[in-house]
Structures are given as structure tokens and as C-alpha cells.
Amino acid sequence: MVRLTGGPNCTGDKRLQVIITGSPDGTERIYNKPRARGSQAQEEREGSPSQSQSPRVITPYDTEDTEPEAKSVRSARVAASRQPSSNCMAAVPASAPAAAEAAELVPTLSSLEPVYGAGAQLDEARLRFARLGDRFHAVYGARPALFARSPGRVNLIGEHIDYEGYSVLPMAIRQDMIVAIRRANGAQVRVANVDDKYPLCVYPADPDKMPELLKYKGVYEYCRSKGIDLGKPVALDVVVDGTVPQGSGLSSSAAFVCSATIAIMGILDKNFPKKEVAQFTCLSERHIGTQSGGMDQAISIMAKPGFAELIDFNPIHATDVQLPSGGTFVIAHCLAESKKAETAATNYNNRVVECRLAAIVLAIKLGMDRKKAISSVTTLSDVEGLCVSFAGREGSSDPAVAVKKLLHEDPYTAGEIEKITGEGLTSVFQGSQTSLEVIKAAKHYKLFQRATHVYSEARRVYAFRDTVSSKLSEEGKLKKLGDLMNESHYSCSVLYECSCPELEELVKVCRDNGALGARLTGAGWGGCAVALEMYYKSRIDRGVIKQGDVGLYVFASKPSSGAAILRL
């Protein structure tokens, strides 16, 4: 990945960094080179980030945005008969392995080998944990009781559809967040960073008295809502170290939320099933202000080394996906930082609102009572069954057919939508402050484009999965995967409009230089692209990347495992 280093845990000169992951030998390689001086404006850009019959388990409306579930619509979708590989959603059968997976706890480990493997990667991890422990001792005069680690991720395909209830296909990366923690005396929580440029912060231990950390109290509130007795507030000493670049689209925020969560779980001697942790960390992150789905937290918690994961929702479920051996996924940063939370009202949350409005309008046009549609429809997956039934009358099983027939391509005005629904938009989104902020800022709503992207992207995820397991040659598989990635990027750029000029230029550079496919990854509006490459080793051997640079700037890494508590 080409990225601009120098974030929260980086010092010194800025460099371009290339991460290559998913190589035939299961390694990840990083190339660094000094960054040429560029536009200051570019550096300061504020741009952002199996199938399941049931609709959603994690949506933007499960906390402050609570809405009744669309049971009748879900029943319609469950009743719709269709082939597993030709449609977006299909039931995940219950089984003994599934039950075992549901009960699988976040692991507690006594060594780094299960997380970082062997060789140079393990040696580097040992040095990093030793430095973190030393920093902890320097700040607090004691050693940490435990560490918690959670990785970032790259989404290979399935962008902006998790919060609509659809499956995604990410993989964890080596870059991660590590939290060192111990119980302390007194009534304070002290938080430091390995980087001295971040000052020590001190807060009262009682969560009810933490106004500055109000948005980060999700885990506490979750436990309280479940009737879990956490006892008296506990004083904590914490030091954080992170290598996931901020604003890259590689889920630095999810890595932070997940690692902080399991660190506190460990210090309180509590543990929960991975699936449950993935769900409540998603709910916790929404306190920051973005109406996110559950992909980032799910892969960070549930990842397995050496595999991408097909993440299904409702119930949350991870299926191992073995990628073709001949390809390498290269992750590149466009150097425009993706500030998802800061631009939520006009970018990320705006798309969530547009998708809900598209779903409500579709439901009404497909015959659902207005009030029922407003009260029960929250995602496009809620109306998929109705759309498929409509498409069937047109000789298709694609829900996008209904979108094409029933929604117009020109942007909708608020007045036009209110005429269809019979309700003011502020009434439709009553109780959701983040959605009301979107309504206040929006000038129009592109319902056709957003719905078309969601339904087409959901189908591409399963086409990607089916291609990997097909009987095509390895080269044939890689070409098809590259085509799907290119289609995904076009949809993200043109229909969902979550790209930016820097990403467009980067994707073009990747394709012009031999990538089979390239697309933005993460929320978009800045951050990273992911490209599928063949023959990367031969390029090194031919001197495209100097062999000397490999020795200086490359380290090996297997695809990452998920979160873990480490008592070293």
C-alpha cells in the first residue's frame, strides 16, 4: 500500500509506504521510500474513509436510531425462492459447528506466536511489545497486567453494504492496535501513548462522570443494559500503540475500539463470545457519530490467519475464504486522509439516510402501506424480497430491476419524497440525531444511484466468493476477481460517489501498471485502494523495485489473526 506515514504513532520524515499482502507464500511486504514534496493542500485534505435470508443484525438504527423491525418485509424475503448463487441473501443453516462458533470466546494467549507466527514478524512483534512494556513502566512505574491486540482490515469487495444488511468480504491485515493495561489505585483512568507527542490524559474512573469520554462509553452502557454487574468503577493505567494509519480506510477506529474493549474485558476478568463482541463494539463505535455497519469490528474480532472472511449478518457469521495462490493484493494510500466522522453528515451518514429513503420509497411503490413502510423499513435488504418478486414478473431475479423501473435517476428533492411518504423527513428520522444532521445539510437525495450500488455490490460479493471456489484455472480466477473489483470501483465512484480525485488517480495508476483489478477500499472519500497483482516477485527480480530496497524496507507477515488478550 502506498501511504503517507507520520500518524499518531509515527515520527520523523514522511514516507510513501507500499503494503503487499496475500502473496503466494502468505506473506505481507512493505516498501518504504521518502515522499516527494507535494501539495500542502493534499496533505491537509479532509476527505474521508453465504448468503443470509434474514436482513440485518447490525444497522445504524440499533442504538439512538432504534426503529421497529420490518417483520412482514423480512417474511416476504424469506418466502421468496431463489438459487443460492444468483441472489444476494440466502439462509445460513444451523449446525453444530455454527453453534460452536457462536460460543467461541475471544482468546487469551500466553505467547505472541499464535498471533504473529514465526520468523522476522515474530521478532519484530517481540521488540514492539517490549518497547510498549518499557513505555508503560516509564509512565506508571509498574508493568502492565496484560495486553490486548486487534488488527485493521482491508475490504476486498462489498463496500457500503454491511449497514444495509448484506455480506462483505474483508481480510485482517498485520497493522494493529495494542493496548497495555493494569488496574491502578485511586479513582482515575490514565491514558498515554507510546508517542510523546500525545500527552497523558486523566479522567475519573466512574463512567457517569466522564463528559470528555462520553462518546466512548458504549461498552459500559452495553454491559449495564444486559444487567451485567461490573462492580465499582476501576482505576486503570493504559498505554496505546497503533500501526494502522489514520484516515486510510483500513479501520484504525475499529481496531482501537476492539482492542480497548477486550483490554477492559481482560482486566475485569470478563469474556464474551466473539460474535457478541463484534456486535457491541459496532454499537459502541456509533457513539462517535458514524452510522457504521458491522464489518470492521467483525473482521477485527473474528479473523483467522491466512484467510479472508465472508462476513454475513443476522446472525453474524464468518466463513473462511481461501484466496487464489497466484495473486497479491496491494494496498495503496492515495494520501488524502479519510475523516469519516468529521464529514459524516455530508458523506457517510448521508449515504445511510439516502439508502433508507430509497428503501421506504421502494416499499411504498411496491404496495406497502405508507405508515408501515416508515415505521418498519430501515435498510434496502428489508425490501429485497419485494423487489425480487417484482423482478420475477419481469423475468429476472435481480432486485435492481425494481430500482430501475420504480425510481428515477434524477435526484429527489425533500418535497418529492415527502409527497410519496406523506410524512416530513424530520418526522421519518425523529429520534436519530445523526440522521437529522444529514437532513439539515442535504440539498437532494440520489435514491436510484444508491440503491443500484447496494444491490449490485451485494451480488458481486457472492460472485467473488463463487469465483474463488470455482473450477477455473488460477489465472482465470484472478482475471475474474480483477473484473469484479473494477466493477465495484465503478459503482462506488459513479453510483455511490464515495471516491475522490486522488483515489481515481491511484486506481488508474494501479491498472496502468498491470493490476488485474483495482478499487477503493474502506469508506472512501480518501484513504486506500486495493489492487490485485500477479508476478510481483518477478518485478522485484527485474529491478522494478530494487532488491536493495527490499532488504531495507520489507518485512514478512502472514495474513493476520483476529483480536486477542495477551498475558505475557
TrEMBL record:
Residues 73-82 have a biased composition (Low complexity). It comes from the Eukaryota. Keywords: ATP-binding, Kinase, Nucleotide-binding, Transferase. GO terms for molecular function: ATP binding; galactokinase activity. The lineage of its organism: Eukaryota, Viridiplantae, Streptophyta, Embryophyta, Tracheophyta. The keyword Isomerase does not apply. PROSITE patterns: GALACTOKINASE, GHMP_KINASES_ATP. Belongs to the GHMP kinase family. GalK subfamily. The keyword Ribosomal protein does not apply. Residues 227-303 form the GHMP kinase N-terminal domain. This is Galactokinase. Residues 473-532 form the GHMP kinase C-terminal domain. Residues 135-183 form the Galactokinase N-terminal domain. Coiled coil: none annotated. It comes from Zea mays (Maize). GO terms for biological process: galactose metabolic process. Residues 1-84 are annotated as: Disordered. Pfam families: GalKase_gal_bdg, GHMP_kinases_C, GHMP_kinases_N.
